[in-house]
Amino acid sequence: MFNTHFVLSFALLLCLPLLFLFAPRILPPKHVKISLPDELDDLALFRRATLASLHAPGSISRLGTINPKPKIAFLFLTNTDLHFAPLWQHFFPNNTDRKLYNIYVHADPSAKLTPPGGVFEGRFIAAKKTERSSPTLISAARRLLATALLDDPLNHYFALVSQHCIPLHSFRYVYNNLFAESTQYPTQLPYLSFIEILSDEPQLWDRYTARGKNVMLPEIPFERFRVGSQFFVLSRSHALVVIKDRRLWRKFKLPCLNTESCYPEEHYFPTLLSMEDPDGCSHYTLTRVNWTDSTGGHPHTYRAADVSPELIYKLRESNTTHPFMFARKFSPDSLVPLMDIAGDVIFRD
Ligand SMILES: *[C@@H]1O[C@H](CO)[C@@H](O)[C@H](O)[C@H]1NC(C)=O
Ligand SMILES: *[C@@H]1O[C@H](CO)[C@@H](O)[C@H](O)[C@H]1NC(C)=O
Ligand SMILES: *[C@@H]1O[C@H](CO)[C@@H](O)[C@H](O)[C@H]1NC(C)=O
Questions:
Q1: Residue nearest to atom 7 of ligand 1 (CA)
Q2: Is the dihedral of CA 333, 336, 339, 340 positive or negative?
Q3: Are the C-beta atoms of 332 and 83 separated by less than 8 Å?
Q4: For the chain, N or C: smaller number of CB within 10 Å?
C-alpha cells in the first residue's frame, strides 16, 4: 500500500521534467535589460546630438569659401573582432578622398577585441552590452547614429555594417552612387534612405506579439508594423528622426516574452521610418544577404571555399535601381581569399 509520503515524492519526481519543459516560459527571460542609468545616458547623448544638429546644419558655408563635400559615416556594430578590418582598410581611401568618410565602431564591452589599428584607430565609441533578441541592438545603432551626428556635421549618410559584412565595390563607387543625385553642392536635397521596409513576412504576427498581446497599441497597430534588414544606409534627416524618437522606442524597448520571435532591430527602424517618411525611403537595402536555408535566424554564411570573383559579381546584382554595395555573412576565414581578389575584383569597378 502506498503511503502519502511516497505518493508525494512520486508526484514531485513526475513534476521535475515538466518543470524543465515549462521553466523557460515561466521564468522571465534572462536578457540584458536596459537599466535606467543606461537609458538616461543614451537620452542625454541623443539630446546633445539633436541640439547640435539644430545649430549646425552641415552644408551651409560662408560666401567665398569652398563648399566642403558631404561625407559617409560608416557605423560598425560588432561583438567580436572586426574580422574583415584588413579588407576595410583597403576599402577606405588614404588619398584626398580620405576627407569623404568617417568611421565609428560600437564594440560590445564584453568582447575581447584585438584593436585593428589603421583607419579604426581611435574610432571606438562609448559602448554598452548588446544581445540578440533584446532591444540592445537598437540602442547600439542609435548610439552610433547620435555619435556620428554630433561628431561631424558633414556626415550626410550613415551606413550600418557588422563584422560579418564586406564591401562589394570601391569606396569611390559607393560614394558616387549615394550622392549621385546631388552633384552640385551645397544642397538641402532630401537624400533617400536605403532601408528595407516589408510588410509581407510570414512570421510578422508572432514578431508583433513577441512582447505580449496588444502591448504595441496604440502607437503601433499591426497594419503599420514593418520588417527589414538590420543593415541600412540612412540620410542625415532620417538619422535625426531615429534619435529623436521616444514614442515607438517606449514600446520597442519592452523585453520580449517570446524570444524565438524577437528581432527588435529588424522592426524598429523600418516601422519608424515607414510611419515618418515612407517616400523618403528606398524600401530596399544595399546590403546583400542570402536567406536560402537559413537556420535559427542566421542567414547563409559564405566560407573561404565559396569566395570567387563570380560570387562577388553575383552578389552585386540586384533588381532595384542600385546595385548591392555590401554583403553578409562571411566567415572569418574568408578574409584570405577576399584579400586575394580585393584589388582586381572587389575594388575594381
Ligand atoms: C594607401 O592605400 C593603398 C591601397 O589601398 C595602400 O597600398 C597604401 O599602402 C596605403 N598608404 C598608406 C600610407 O597607408
Ligand atoms: C545562397 O545560399 C544557398 C545555400 O544556402 C546556396 O545554394 C546559393 O548558391 C546561395 N546564393 C547565392 C547567390 O550565393
Ligand atoms: C531578381 O528577380 C529574379 C526574378 O524574380 C529572382 O530570381 C532573383 O533572385 C532576384 N534577384 C535578387 C538579387 O533579388
A1: 90
A2: negative
A3: yes
A4: N
Q: Please give the number of the atom of ligand 2 that sits closest to the Cα of 314.
A: 13
Q: Provide the whole-model pTM.
A: 0.88
199 lies in some domain: yes
CATH code: domain of residue 185? 3.90.550
Provide the pLDDT for residue 4: 56
For ligand 1, atom 10: residue with the closest CA:
94
* Residue 94 in contact with ligand 1 by CB distance below 6 A: yes
pLDDT tens sequence across 129-151: 999 888 999 999 999 999 999 99
46 alpha-carbon distance from chain centroid: 17
Q: Provide the residue count of the chain.
A: 349
Residue 223 has pLDDT above 80, yes or no: yes
Residue 229 lies in a domain: yes
CA dihedral 98, 157, 242, 115 (to 10 degrees): -30
The pick from 319, 321, 324 for probing ligand 3's pocket by mutation, whose C-beta has the most ligand atoms within 8 angstroms, reads 319
Using a 6 Å cutoff on CB, does residue 317 contact ligand 3?
yes
Domain count, the chain: 1
Domain that holds residue 330: 34-54+68-346
**329 in a domain, yes or no?**
yes
- The pLDDT confidence band at residue 9, using thresholds 50, 70 and 90, is low
